[in-house]
Structures are given as C-alpha cells and as structure tokens.
Amino acid sequence: MSSFPGNAPPEVSAPSSTSRAPLERAAVQAVDRLVAWALDHWLAVLLTILLLFTGLPFLAPVFMALGWELPAKAIYTLYIPFCHQLPQRSWFLFGEKLTYTLEEIQRVYPSADPWELRFFYGTPEMGWKVAWSDRMISFYTMTPVFGLLYAWRRRHRPPRPLSWAVFGLTLLPLAVDGGTHALSDLLYGVSNGGFRDTNAWLAWLTGNAFPGFYAGDHFGTFNWWARLFTGLLAAWGVAFTLFPWLERWMAQVPRPAPRAVELAPPSTAIQKEA
After folding, report:
1. Which comes out higher in pLDDT, residue 161 or 41?
2. Where are the beta strands (DSSP E) in 103-228?
3. Count of structural domains within the chain
4. What whole-number distance in Å separates Cα of residue 64 and Cα of residue 123?
C-alpha cells in the first residue's frame, strides 16, 4: 500500500532540455575557444612552461638567502631527477664567488661522496647554490631563451628549421663533453683526478701554454667554458630546429569549428512507490 495519500505518488521531474541547453552549449563553446587559442598561441604556452621550469632553480638560492629553507629545499629535492647538482659544478649566488673548487667546498662540507655533495647548498659566506649545474644552466635555461629569439624572428619572417645534419652537429660537442666527463667520473671518481679533471691531455696538446686553465671545474677553467659553450650551442640547435618543425605541425592541426550541442531526450519521470 502506498504511504502517500491518494492513488498517485509524487513525481520528480528531470531538468528540462530547454534549461540545460544554454549551459551545455556555452561549456562546449568555451572548451572549443580554449583549444583554438592554445593551438594559435602554442609557442607562448610552451615557452611559458619551459621558462617556469628552467627558472625555478634560481629561486632556491633566493629563498635560502631570505631564510626560507623549506621552499628552497623543496626546489633542490624536486630537481634531483633532472640534475646532479654537484656543488663544484654549480653556480652560487649572494656569496663571495660564482663557483668554488671541491677543495674549497670540503673545508666546510667534508665529503667526497657524490650523493652527499649534492645536498650541500652553501653557506651565508659562500652563497647559495643554484639548483641547476652549470651545464644545465647553459642548455636547459637557454633553450627557452633562444625560443624567445625564435618567436621574435617569426613575427617578421619565420626561419626555416636547421637541417637534421646541422642539428646533430650542434648536439655533438655537448654529447662528447658530457660523455667524457661521465666516463672520467665513472673510472676515477667525481673530481678525483680523472682525465677530465686534470685535462693533462689538453695541457700536452697546447704545450701547457695556459697554466691554471686546464684542471678543475671552477670559473675560467677549460671545463667551465666547455660546459657553457656546448650547452649554448645545443640550446640554439634545439630552438631553431624543433620549434620551426612544431610550427609547421601546429599549422596543420585543424581548429575546432563552432558546433551545436545535440541533447538527448529528457528522461521520464521518476516514480517512488511504497
């Protein structure tokens, strides 16, 4: 027996199609406009993401200098998968020098273990380490910077992408420099007298014409300049090869056209019985 007076239970009506149509149509059109905008401004979106990603490590020393250790250490930890962060191959801000030798670092942080060294962030006197190594600064950070240059040039005359052969040549010095460093570290230990630490081979080739230039990773040494220039060259190659190809591909992606929203017929009334 029904618990409601009378014979017919109350009916709960579904929202009418006329009330839903404007909202659904507006939502679909808003998504279409957002997709079309992202496709038309893909380079601005991509460069913004890259600049944020590559610029965040520079906030770590800023936060440390301000005494905000928690967000600074969060940034250092976040970027561990992307960079070794060895202090003898990193830049320091707000201190006495831009770079330090391993011997100078070990005076305040006595460790030779590569894993432990990455957790040396600096001191108030030495300054605070950027969460990128010097190679990553020149390669990762400069890629979107060269991307900005590409964006400026495309406004006047879009440059053609570099040939794949030239692109390979821009990456080759970085691969050789990084590969030989990795091999030297593997065979002799990090900054432990390997052939890429002393660079005795280069001193022999040049007749030791530039004392103080060959050994170490600090500012002004061969290794420092090699990481800087090979990273810059690779970043330039990436920006002026991949971005133009992305430009061509994005131009072929169809943009969403305005469309009407097809609605399903309204559902039948829901009846509640005793």
Report:
1. 161
2. 122-123, 127-133
3. 1
4. 9
Question: Residue 171's domain spans which residues?
Answer: 40-252
Cβ-based burial of 138 (10 A; exposed 0-12, middle 13-18, buried ≥19): buried
Burial 180-191, CB ≥16 within 10 A → b, else e: ebeebbeeeebb
pLDDT tens figures, 77-108: 999 999 999 999 999 999 999 999 999 999 99
Q: Is residue 266 part of a domain?
A: no
pTM of the predicted protein model? 0.79
Q: What is the mean pLDDT of the chain?
A: 87
Q: Is 258 part of a structural domain of the chain?
A: no
- What's the first-to-final CA gap in the chain, in angstroms? 6
Beta bridge partners of 69: none
Residues in contact with 267: Cβ distance below 8 Å, sequence separation at least 6, in sequence order: 14
In a domain, 261, yes or no: no
Is residue 58 a part of any domain in this protein?
Answer: yes
